[in-house]
Amino acid sequence: MPEGPSIYILKEELQPFVKKTITSASGYADLDFKKLKGQKILSIESWGKHLLIVFKKAYVRIHLLMFGTYRINERKEANPKLTLKIGKDELNFYTCSVKYFEEDPTNVYDFDADVMSTTWSPRKALKKLRSQPQLNVCDALLDQQIFSGVGNIIKNEVLFRIRVHPKNTIGNLPDPTIKNLVKEAANYTWDFYEWKKINQLKKHWLIHTKKICPRCHIPAFKEYIGKTKRRTFYCDNCQIIFKPKKGSGSAVVKKNN
DNA sequence: ATACATGTTGGAGC
DNA sequence: GGCTCCAACATGTA
After folding, report:
1. Which chain A residues 73-102 have CB under 7 A to strand B?
2. Does one domain contain both A146 and A168?
């Protein structure tokens, strides 16, 4: 389910619980539930794919990983990893990672790296990218320290949108293209968010899971690319492989097929 | 029905 | 010590 926008939506759905106090906590998470009981929720935030329930001197971090789900005032036919009772309300989180930290999240997270944050910094992302010219573009987009919140679907769609072939390294991209990559990583993430809210995400996919390129109508490629080896859909015709820049020291990229 | 997928981590091995 | 690789986790769907 969850890339950044889905967690952002979850955060929004949970805002009514801010300033409320946790009546009880339970579940099969490896957690000291006593520490949650009686805590007042000061804020509910997100950083990329992390949901943060913030207390006075602590926070709970929930990561839905690949299969995580949740219910608000509803239950699934499954054991919840975490149940929070808040007065007569109930939050249930399933198959996710839940951890309790006795720290201030502002000391832990760099919100400038979150593509959906009000403090998202394209400039810092650009700087991080330029410092790693050997980095494959797929790996770059999935790097949560550079593009927190971007997941595999967003990766595929962004590269298709900006017509960049997934086998490029960052160092091979012309400067305007790197800037466009940063810009579209955030832009597409917000589009994803709008479509997700109205349950119309899949119908807007251009290349992800597609067998045919919607632009030139030739067969699309599916391949596992980069050190992350994630499923990558692309059009070998529309998406350009750039020539290595002189003196960049980056590896030569062969055009496949 | 077996395999695979919107993700991350911790530990093994080098 | 540090880097890389892979198993592990867990569920819904084709």
Report:
1. 97
2. yes
